[in-house]
Amino acid sequence: MSIGKMRHRIILQSVTAVINDNGFETKQPQVFATVWADVSNLHGREFYQAQAVQAENTVKFTIRYLPGIDASMHILFQGKTYNITSIDNIKYRNRYLEIKALEVESSG
């Protein structure tokens, strides 16, 4: 992959439990990393496989390898939040990660 394709800035967030002033545990997002990414919609066979499970708003993010990323994290991109559905260490070379994520529908 050409590093020049990674022209979008994304924020990876982890969710941690924090005790508030009243002594209750609340979950708050914390920035894990801000990285450059290649962002694309699914197409072809990937798109039809996602449609089979009704994952209409699935986006593929490709980033440089970063240890510590897991499926419990969120991605912020262009004002939208995405839940990570899968992480693929491409060919186990520890060079790039391909992350598929589903857009979180805002309630309101």
Write the layout of secondary structure elements.
Elements: E1 8-19, E2 25-41, H1 44-52, E3 58-64, E4 74-77, E5 80-89, E6 96-103
Antiparallel strand pairs: 1-2, 1-4, 2-3, 3-6, 4-5, 5-6
Strand content: over 45%
Instruction: Report the uncertain regions.
Output: none
Number of H- or I-type helical stretches = 1
Biggest pleated sheet: 6 strands, antiparallel, barrel
> Judging from the principal axes of the Cα atoms, what is the shape?
globular
Terminal CA distance reads 39 Å
Helix content: under 10%
Spatial extent as radius of gyration? 15 Å
Order of SSEs = EEHEEEE
Number of strands: 6
Integer average pLDDT? 86
The helix/strand class is mainly beta
Q: Order of strands in the sheet with the most strands?
A: 1-2-3-6-5-4
Please describe what this structure looks like.
- The chain is mainly beta.
- It contains one helix and six strands.
- The chain has one helix at residues 44-52, and strands spanning 8-19, 25-41, 58-64, 74-77, 80-89, 96-103.
- A six-stranded antiparallel β-barrel has the order 1-2-3-6-5-4.
- β1 and β2 (25-41) form a beta hairpin.
- It starts with 7 loop residues before the first strand and ends in a 5-residue tail after the last strand.
- The mean pLDDT is 86.
